[in-house]
Design goal:
This protein has about 120 residues and is mainly α. It is about 40% helix and about 5% strand. In muscle, parvalbumin is thought to be involved in relaxation after contraction. It binds two calcium ions.
Length: about 120
């Protein structure tokens, strides 16, 4: 697991079990259930670096689709609907990416979970 030592295995398993069915993923619930919402800014930045598979400095749609697999290799991919909703919640400027800092960043999504697309 990419988050070993940072997140509690039991919490991560519970979070993954909570969104095992297609179209059941809710990023706010997942961040809370996995324990990520209680982590420091440095921990969230480290999580960002794991999720940012191509090291571009942004999390793009294709990386979000595989978001759950960063927590467990056997986890499902997000559906297109879930992926688009997740991206929409964090993409404050409409560029199709989630940044590491600022409004619409992974940090703000984890610690201030509001849907910015509304």
């Amino acid at each position: 697991m990419a988050f070993a030592g940072v997140l509690n295995d039991a919490e991560v398993k519970a979070a993954l079990d909570g969104c095992a069915a297609a179209d059941s993923f809710d990023y706010k619930k997942f961040f809370k259930a996995s324990g990520l919402a209680a982590k420091t800014a440095d921990d969230v930045k480290n999580a960002f670096k794991i999720i940012d598979q191509d090291n571009s400095g942004f999390i793009e749609e294709d990386e979000l689709k595989l978001f759950l697999q960063n927590f467990s290799a056997g986890a499902r991919a997000l559906t297109d609907k879930e992926t688009k909703a997740f991206l929409s919640a964090g993409d404050s400027d409409g560029d199709g990416k989630i940044g590491i800092d600022g409004e619409g960043s992974l940090w703000s999504m984890v610690h201030f979970p509001t849907d910015l697309s509304v």
